[in-house]
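Attaching the record inline, Q. Sequence:
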Amino acid sequence: MRSNLRFLASRRPGLRGWPAVVGIGFSFAVTMMGTTLPTPLYPLYRSSYGFGELATSVVYAVYAVGVLVALLLFGHWSDQIGRIRMLRAGVLLSSLSTSVFLLGEGTGWLLVGRLVSGLSAGIFTGTASAAMVEVAPPGGAARATLAAAAVNIGGLGAGPLVAGALAEYAPWPLRLCFVVESVLTVIGLVAVSAVAEPLRLPSTPTLRPQKVSVPGSVRTVFIEAAIPGFAGFAVLGLFAAVAPSFLAVVLHTTNHAATGLIVALLFLASVTGQLSSSRLGEYRSLLLGCVALIAGMTLVATGLLTASLACLTVGGAVAGVGQGLAFRAGLDSIVRQTQPKTRGSVTSAFFVVLYTGITLPVIGEGALANLLGLVQAGTLFNGFVIFLGVTALLFLARRRQGPLAR
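Structure, as predicted:
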Protein backbone atom coordinates (compact mmCIF):
# COMPACT_ATOMS: atom_id res chain seq x y z
CA MET A 1 0.00 0.00 0.00
CA ARG A 2 2.92 2.36 0.50
CA SER A 3 3.30 2.74 -3.26
CA ASN A 4 -0.08 4.49 -3.35
CA LEU A 5 0.91 7.16 -0.84
CA ARG A 6 2.08 10.64 -1.84
CA PHE A 7 4.65 12.64 0.06
CA LEU A 8 5.99 16.17 -0.33
CA ALA A 9 9.28 14.80 -1.60
CA SER A 10 10.76 13.98 -4.96
CA ARG A 11 13.46 11.80 -6.46
CA ARG A 12 13.64 13.95 -9.56
CA PRO A 13 16.54 16.42 -9.47
CA GLY A 14 15.89 20.07 -10.13
CA LEU A 15 15.32 23.49 -8.60
CA ARG A 16 13.77 23.79 -5.15
CA GLY A 17 12.99 26.62 -2.76
CA TRP A 18 12.59 30.19 -3.98
CA PRO A 19 14.32 29.60 -7.36
CA ALA A 20 11.67 26.95 -8.04
CA VAL A 21 8.89 29.35 -6.95
CA VAL A 22 10.27 31.96 -9.36
CA GLY A 23 10.48 29.44 -12.22
CA ILE A 24 6.90 28.27 -11.80
CA GLY A 25 5.70 31.82 -11.17
CA PHE A 26 7.26 33.05 -14.41
CA SER A 27 5.61 30.33 -16.48
CA PHE A 28 2.33 30.97 -14.62
CA ALA A 29 2.42 34.69 -15.44
CA VAL A 30 3.33 34.07 -19.09
CA THR A 31 0.53 31.53 -19.51
CA MET A 32 -2.09 33.82 -17.98
CA MET A 33 -0.82 36.78 -20.00
CA GLY A 34 -1.45 34.79 -23.16
CA THR A 35 -5.14 34.40 -22.25
CA THR A 36 -5.79 38.17 -22.28
CA LEU A 37 -3.59 39.27 -25.19
CA PRO A 38 -6.58 39.33 -27.59
CA THR A 39 -8.60 41.74 -25.38
CA PRO A 40 -7.56 45.11 -26.90
CA LEU A 41 -7.45 43.52 -30.36
CA TYR A 42 -11.17 42.68 -30.61
CA PRO A 43 -12.04 45.91 -32.50
CA LEU A 44 -9.36 45.01 -35.06
CA TYR A 45 -10.65 41.45 -35.34
CA ARG A 46 -14.18 42.75 -35.88
CA SER A 47 -13.10 45.06 -38.68
CA SER A 48 -10.92 42.36 -40.25
CA TYR A 49 -13.34 39.43 -39.98
CA GLY A 50 -16.68 41.25 -39.97
CA PHE A 51 -18.39 39.96 -36.84
CA GLY A 52 -20.51 41.80 -34.27
CA GLU A 53 -20.87 42.12 -30.52
CA LEU A 54 -22.48 38.73 -29.96
CA ALA A 55 -19.68 36.97 -31.86
CA THR A 56 -17.12 38.91 -29.81
CA SER A 57 -18.76 37.72 -26.60
CA VAL A 58 -18.87 34.12 -27.85
CA VAL A 59 -15.19 34.21 -28.87
CA TYR A 60 -14.33 35.40 -25.37
CA ALA A 61 -16.67 32.94 -23.63
CA VAL A 62 -15.18 29.96 -25.47
CA TYR A 63 -12.10 30.57 -23.34
CA ALA A 64 -14.13 30.01 -20.17
CA VAL A 65 -15.55 26.81 -21.66
CA GLY A 66 -11.99 25.56 -22.11
CA VAL A 67 -11.19 26.43 -18.49
CA LEU A 68 -14.27 24.56 -17.25
CA VAL A 69 -13.45 21.48 -19.34
CA ALA A 70 -9.89 21.45 -18.00
CA LEU A 71 -11.05 21.86 -14.40
CA LEU A 72 -13.60 19.07 -14.65
CA LEU A 73 -11.54 16.58 -16.65
CA PHE A 74 -7.92 17.32 -15.69
CA GLY A 75 -8.11 19.27 -12.42
CA HIS A 76 -6.83 16.36 -10.30
CA TRP A 77 -4.36 14.88 -12.79
CA SER A 78 -1.38 16.69 -11.27
CA ASP A 79 -2.00 14.69 -8.06
CA GLN A 80 -1.66 11.52 -10.10
CA ILE A 81 1.01 12.13 -12.74
CA GLY A 82 2.90 15.06 -11.21
CA ARG A 83 2.77 18.82 -10.98
CA ILE A 84 5.65 19.42 -13.40
CA ARG A 85 4.25 17.17 -16.13
CA MET A 86 0.92 18.98 -16.02
CA LEU A 87 2.60 22.38 -15.97
CA ARG A 88 4.63 21.44 -19.03
CA ALA A 89 1.40 20.37 -20.74
CA GLY A 90 -0.16 23.71 -19.81
CA VAL A 91 2.74 25.70 -21.27
CA LEU A 92 2.65 23.63 -24.46
CA LEU A 93 -1.08 24.27 -24.84
CA SER A 94 -0.44 27.98 -24.29
CA SER A 95 2.19 27.87 -27.03
CA LEU A 96 -0.26 26.08 -29.33
CA SER A 97 -2.91 28.73 -28.68
CA THR A 98 -0.39 31.46 -29.45
CA SER A 99 0.51 29.73 -32.72
CA VAL A 100 -3.16 29.61 -33.71
CA PHE A 101 -3.54 33.37 -33.16
CA LEU A 102 -0.26 34.02 -34.94
CA LEU A 103 -0.94 31.91 -38.03
CA GLY A 104 -4.72 31.51 -38.25
CA GLU A 105 -7.18 33.70 -40.14
CA GLY A 106 -10.90 34.14 -39.51
CA THR A 107 -13.43 33.74 -36.71
CA GLY A 108 -13.13 29.93 -36.63
CA TRP A 109 -9.43 30.14 -35.81
CA LEU A 110 -10.15 32.70 -33.07
CA LEU A 111 -12.57 30.23 -31.49
CA VAL A 112 -9.99 27.44 -31.63
CA GLY A 113 -7.28 29.68 -30.18
CA ARG A 114 -9.49 30.81 -27.30
CA LEU A 115 -10.59 27.24 -26.52
CA VAL A 116 -6.99 25.98 -26.35
CA SER A 117 -6.03 29.02 -24.27
CA GLY A 118 -8.80 28.15 -21.81
CA LEU A 119 -7.59 24.55 -21.54
CA SER A 120 -4.11 25.84 -20.74
CA ALA A 121 -5.37 28.24 -18.08
CA GLY A 122 -7.62 25.59 -16.53
CA ILE A 123 -4.69 23.21 -16.18
CA PHE A 124 -2.35 25.89 -14.88
CA THR A 125 -4.45 27.78 -12.35
CA GLY A 126 -4.81 25.11 -9.67
CA THR A 127 -1.67 23.14 -10.47
CA ALA A 128 0.72 26.10 -10.46
CA SER A 129 -0.82 27.55 -7.30
CA ALA A 130 -0.35 24.24 -5.47
CA ALA A 131 3.14 23.67 -6.87
CA MET A 132 4.41 27.11 -5.84
CA VAL A 133 3.40 26.39 -2.24
CA GLU A 134 4.86 22.88 -2.30
CA VAL A 135 8.29 23.89 -3.64
CA ALA A 136 8.62 26.87 -1.29
CA PRO A 137 11.18 26.57 1.51
CA PRO A 138 10.00 25.82 5.07
CA GLY A 139 7.98 28.71 6.43
CA GLY A 140 7.43 30.20 2.99
CA ALA A 141 3.97 28.82 2.21
CA ALA A 142 2.10 32.05 2.98
CA ARG A 143 4.39 34.16 0.79
CA ALA A 144 4.19 31.56 -1.97
CA THR A 145 0.37 31.68 -1.83
CA LEU A 146 0.40 35.47 -2.20
CA ALA A 147 2.93 35.17 -5.02
CA ALA A 148 0.69 32.68 -6.84
CA ALA A 149 -2.31 35.01 -6.58
CA ALA A 150 -0.24 37.98 -7.72
CA VAL A 151 1.31 36.32 -10.78
CA ASN A 152 -2.08 34.86 -11.75
CA ILE A 153 -3.99 38.14 -11.82
CA GLY A 154 -0.87 40.15 -12.69
CA GLY A 155 -0.33 38.00 -15.77
CA LEU A 156 -3.96 38.55 -16.77
CA GLY A 157 -3.44 42.29 -16.41
CA ALA A 158 -0.18 42.29 -18.36
CA GLY A 159 -1.80 40.77 -21.46
CA PRO A 160 -3.93 43.80 -22.44
CA LEU A 161 -1.07 46.18 -21.61
CA VAL A 162 1.41 44.40 -23.86
CA ALA A 163 -0.99 43.71 -26.72
CA GLY A 164 -2.49 47.21 -26.64
CA ALA A 165 0.87 48.97 -26.65
CA LEU A 166 2.27 46.83 -29.46
CA ALA A 167 -0.91 47.15 -31.55
CA GLU A 168 -0.88 50.94 -31.21
CA TYR A 169 2.81 51.77 -31.52
CA ALA A 170 4.46 48.85 -33.37
CA PRO A 171 3.95 47.18 -36.74
CA TRP A 172 1.96 44.00 -37.36
CA PRO A 173 -0.79 44.85 -34.81
CA LEU A 174 -2.59 41.49 -34.91
CA ARG A 175 0.55 39.37 -34.78
CA LEU A 176 3.49 40.96 -32.98
CA CYS A 177 2.22 40.42 -29.43
CA PHE A 178 1.87 36.70 -30.19
CA VAL A 179 5.46 36.58 -31.47
CA VAL A 180 6.55 38.00 -28.10
CA GLU A 181 4.33 35.54 -26.26
CA SER A 182 5.78 32.63 -28.26
CA VAL A 183 9.30 33.53 -27.13
CA LEU A 184 8.16 33.88 -23.51
CA THR A 185 6.40 30.49 -23.54
CA VAL A 186 9.63 28.81 -24.65
CA ILE A 187 11.42 30.43 -21.70
CA GLY A 188 8.52 29.42 -19.46
CA LEU A 189 8.76 25.80 -20.59
CA VAL A 190 12.49 25.74 -19.80
CA ALA A 191 11.87 27.38 -16.41
CA VAL A 192 9.17 24.98 -15.28
CA SER A 193 11.03 21.94 -16.60
CA ALA A 194 13.99 22.87 -14.40
CA VAL A 195 11.93 22.52 -11.20
CA ALA A 196 12.03 19.34 -9.12
CA GLU A 197 8.76 17.42 -8.92
CA PRO A 198 7.44 18.11 -5.37
CA LEU A 199 5.31 14.95 -5.08
CA ARG A 200 5.87 11.23 -4.94
CA LEU A 201 3.20 9.79 -7.14
CA PRO A 202 0.95 6.73 -6.98
CA SER A 203 2.12 3.67 -8.86
CA THR A 204 -1.33 3.39 -10.50
CA PRO A 205 -2.67 6.84 -11.40
CA THR A 206 -6.44 7.43 -11.35
CA LEU A 207 -7.38 9.71 -14.23
CA ARG A 208 -11.17 9.46 -14.15
CA PRO A 209 -13.01 12.83 -14.38
CA GLN A 210 -13.13 14.57 -11.03
CA LYS A 211 -16.42 14.57 -9.15
CA VAL A 212 -17.66 18.08 -8.42
CA SER A 213 -19.95 18.38 -5.40
CA VAL A 214 -20.65 20.51 -2.32
CA PRO A 215 -21.37 18.64 0.94
CA GLY A 216 -24.23 19.92 3.03
CA SER A 217 -21.88 20.86 5.87
CA VAL A 218 -20.24 23.63 3.79
CA ARG A 219 -23.17 24.60 1.56
CA THR A 220 -23.86 27.86 3.41
CA VAL A 221 -20.21 28.88 3.27
CA PHE A 222 -20.15 27.96 -0.41
CA ILE A 223 -23.20 30.11 -1.22
CA GLU A 224 -21.80 33.07 0.74
CA ALA A 225 -18.63 32.86 -1.34
CA ALA A 226 -20.18 31.90 -4.69
CA ILE A 227 -22.65 34.78 -5.16
CA PRO A 228 -20.11 37.64 -4.97
CA GLY A 229 -17.53 35.42 -6.70
CA PHE A 230 -19.90 34.91 -9.65
CA ALA A 231 -20.60 38.66 -9.79
CA GLY A 232 -16.91 39.56 -9.63
CA PHE A 233 -15.90 37.20 -12.41
CA ALA A 234 -18.79 38.48 -14.53
CA VAL A 235 -17.21 41.94 -14.20
CA LEU A 236 -13.84 40.54 -15.32
CA GLY A 237 -15.56 38.97 -18.30
CA LEU A 238 -17.34 42.19 -19.20
CA PHE A 239 -14.16 44.26 -19.22
CA ALA A 240 -12.06 41.65 -21.00
CA ALA A 241 -14.67 40.89 -23.69
CA VAL A 242 -16.63 44.03 -24.47
CA ALA A 243 -14.92 47.00 -22.77
CA PRO A 244 -12.94 47.68 -25.98
CA SER A 245 -16.28 48.04 -27.80
CA PHE A 246 -17.63 50.38 -25.13
CA LEU A 247 -14.52 52.52 -25.39
CA ALA A 248 -14.56 52.65 -29.20
CA VAL A 249 -18.30 53.03 -29.85
CA VAL A 250 -19.58 54.92 -26.80
CA LEU A 251 -16.54 56.92 -25.69
CA HIS A 252 -14.83 57.16 -29.11
CA THR A 253 -11.53 55.96 -27.67
CA THR A 254 -9.71 54.01 -30.37
CA ASN A 255 -6.21 54.03 -28.90
CA HIS A 256 -5.40 50.35 -28.35
CA ALA A 257 -2.80 51.12 -25.68
CA ALA A 258 -5.36 53.13 -23.69
CA THR A 259 -7.85 50.29 -24.02
CA GLY A 260 -5.30 47.80 -22.76
CA LEU A 261 -4.38 50.06 -19.85
CA ILE A 262 -8.00 50.48 -18.71
CA VAL A 263 -8.62 46.72 -18.80
CA ALA A 264 -5.30 46.06 -17.04
CA LEU A 265 -6.25 48.46 -14.24
CA LEU A 266 -9.18 46.21 -13.36
CA PHE A 267 -6.90 43.18 -12.96
CA LEU A 268 -4.27 45.15 -11.04
CA ALA A 269 -7.00 46.46 -8.73
CA SER A 270 -8.03 42.84 -8.19
CA VAL A 271 -4.50 42.04 -7.02
CA THR A 272 -4.76 44.93 -4.54
CA GLY A 273 -8.03 43.55 -3.24
CA GLN A 274 -6.60 40.06 -2.83
CA LEU A 275 -3.58 41.34 -0.92
CA SER A 276 -5.82 43.43 1.34
CA SER A 277 -8.10 40.48 2.07
CA SER A 278 -5.53 38.71 4.24
CA ARG A 279 -5.44 41.70 6.61
CA LEU A 280 -9.19 42.28 6.77
CA GLY A 281 -10.36 38.73 7.41
CA GLU A 282 -12.81 36.64 5.41
CA TYR A 283 -16.14 38.07 6.61
CA ARG A 284 -15.17 41.76 6.36
CA SER A 285 -13.51 41.13 2.99
CA LEU A 286 -16.68 39.61 1.59
CA LEU A 287 -18.79 42.50 2.92
CA LEU A 288 -16.42 45.17 1.59
CA GLY A 289 -16.01 43.26 -1.66
CA CYS A 290 -19.76 43.33 -2.25
CA VAL A 291 -19.94 47.05 -1.40
CA ALA A 292 -17.05 47.79 -3.79
CA LEU A 293 -18.65 45.75 -6.58
CA ILE A 294 -21.92 47.66 -6.16
CA ALA A 295 -20.18 51.05 -6.04
CA GLY A 296 -17.87 50.23 -8.94
CA MET A 297 -20.60 49.00 -11.25
CA THR A 298 -22.74 52.03 -10.39
CA LEU A 299 -19.87 54.23 -11.56
CA VAL A 300 -19.41 52.11 -14.70
CA ALA A 301 -23.13 52.46 -15.54
CA THR A 302 -22.85 56.23 -14.97
CA GLY A 303 -19.85 56.31 -17.29
CA LEU A 304 -21.80 54.54 -20.02
CA LEU A 305 -24.88 56.73 -19.68
CA THR A 306 -22.88 59.98 -19.58
CA ALA A 307 -20.04 58.91 -21.93
CA SER A 308 -17.52 59.60 -19.14
CA LEU A 309 -14.17 57.87 -19.49
CA ALA A 310 -13.23 58.91 -15.94
CA CYS A 311 -16.32 57.24 -14.43
CA LEU A 312 -15.74 54.08 -16.45
CA THR A 313 -12.07 53.87 -15.44
CA VAL A 314 -12.58 54.62 -11.74
CA GLY A 315 -15.60 52.32 -11.62
CA GLY A 316 -13.63 49.48 -13.14
CA ALA A 317 -10.84 49.95 -10.61
CA VAL A 318 -13.25 50.02 -7.66
CA ALA A 319 -15.06 46.94 -8.95
CA GLY A 320 -11.70 45.23 -9.43
CA VAL A 321 -10.80 45.78 -5.78
CA GLY A 322 -14.19 44.34 -4.82
CA GLN A 323 -13.67 41.33 -7.05
CA GLY A 324 -10.26 40.66 -5.51
CA LEU A 325 -11.55 40.99 -1.95
CA ALA A 326 -14.54 38.71 -2.53
CA PHE A 327 -12.62 36.13 -4.55
CA ARG A 328 -9.72 35.70 -2.13
CA ALA A 329 -11.96 35.70 0.97
CA GLY A 330 -14.42 33.26 -0.58
CA LEU A 331 -11.71 30.85 -1.68
CA ASP A 332 -9.97 31.02 1.70
CA SER A 333 -13.23 30.36 3.55
CA ILE A 334 -14.03 27.33 1.41
CA VAL A 335 -10.55 25.88 1.84
CA ARG A 336 -10.64 26.50 5.61
CA GLN A 337 -14.13 25.06 6.20
CA THR A 338 -13.88 22.01 3.92
CA GLN A 339 -12.47 18.65 4.99
CA PRO A 340 -9.29 17.58 3.14
CA LYS A 341 -10.98 14.57 1.52
CA THR A 342 -13.58 16.80 -0.21
CA ARG A 343 -11.53 19.99 -0.59
CA GLY A 344 -10.53 19.35 -4.20
CA SER A 345 -14.09 18.66 -5.28
CA VAL A 346 -15.54 21.69 -3.49
CA THR A 347 -12.81 24.00 -4.76
CA SER A 348 -13.41 22.78 -8.32
CA ALA A 349 -17.13 23.44 -7.87
CA PHE A 350 -16.30 26.99 -6.76
CA PHE A 351 -14.21 27.63 -9.87
CA VAL A 352 -16.97 26.14 -12.03
CA VAL A 353 -19.32 28.79 -10.60
CA LEU A 354 -16.74 31.54 -11.18
CA TYR A 355 -16.07 30.64 -14.80
CA THR A 356 -19.77 30.24 -15.46
CA GLY A 357 -19.94 33.85 -14.27
CA ILE A 358 -17.45 34.81 -16.96
CA THR A 359 -19.33 32.88 -19.66
CA LEU A 360 -23.12 33.19 -19.52
CA PRO A 361 -23.57 36.87 -18.50
CA VAL A 362 -21.06 38.02 -21.13
CA ILE A 363 -22.82 36.09 -23.89
CA GLY A 364 -26.12 37.54 -22.68
CA GLU A 365 -24.68 41.04 -22.76
CA GLY A 366 -23.47 40.49 -26.31
CA ALA A 367 -26.90 39.27 -27.43
CA LEU A 368 -28.61 42.24 -25.78
CA ALA A 369 -26.12 44.63 -27.40
CA ASN A 370 -27.27 43.41 -30.82
CA LEU A 371 -30.90 44.05 -29.85
CA LEU A 372 -30.73 47.18 -27.69
CA GLY A 373 -27.33 48.72 -28.28
CA LEU A 374 -24.16 48.78 -26.20
CA VAL A 375 -25.22 51.41 -23.68
CA GLN A 376 -28.55 49.80 -22.82
CA ALA A 377 -27.06 46.30 -22.69
CA GLY A 378 -24.14 47.47 -20.56
CA THR A 379 -26.48 49.27 -18.17
CA LEU A 380 -28.63 46.15 -17.77
CA PHE A 381 -25.51 44.06 -17.18
CA ASN A 382 -24.34 46.48 -14.50
CA GLY A 383 -27.77 46.30 -12.89
CA PHE A 384 -27.51 42.51 -12.82
CA VAL A 385 -24.14 42.64 -11.03
CA ILE A 386 -25.45 45.23 -8.58
CA PHE A 387 -28.44 42.98 -7.85
CA LEU A 388 -26.09 40.07 -7.11
CA GLY A 389 -23.98 42.28 -4.87
CA VAL A 390 -27.03 43.43 -2.89
CA THR A 391 -28.27 39.83 -2.63
CA ALA A 392 -24.91 38.71 -1.26
CA LEU A 393 -24.87 41.59 1.23
CA LEU A 394 -28.32 40.70 2.54
CA PHE A 395 -27.32 37.05 2.82
CA LEU A 396 -24.16 37.94 4.74
CA ALA A 397 -26.02 40.36 7.01
CA ARG A 398 -28.45 37.60 8.02
CA ARG A 399 -25.50 35.30 8.69
CA ARG A 400 -23.51 37.84 10.71
CA GLN A 401 -22.80 35.28 13.43
CA GLY A 402 -22.37 32.46 10.91
CA PRO A 403 -19.29 30.47 9.86
CA LEU A 404 -17.58 33.37 8.09
CA ALA A 405 -18.01 35.95 10.81
CA ARG A 406 -14.85 37.05 12.57
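Residues 273 and 324 are 4 Å apart (CA to CA). Confidence is low (pLDDT under 50) at residues 1-10, 401-406.

More tomorrow.
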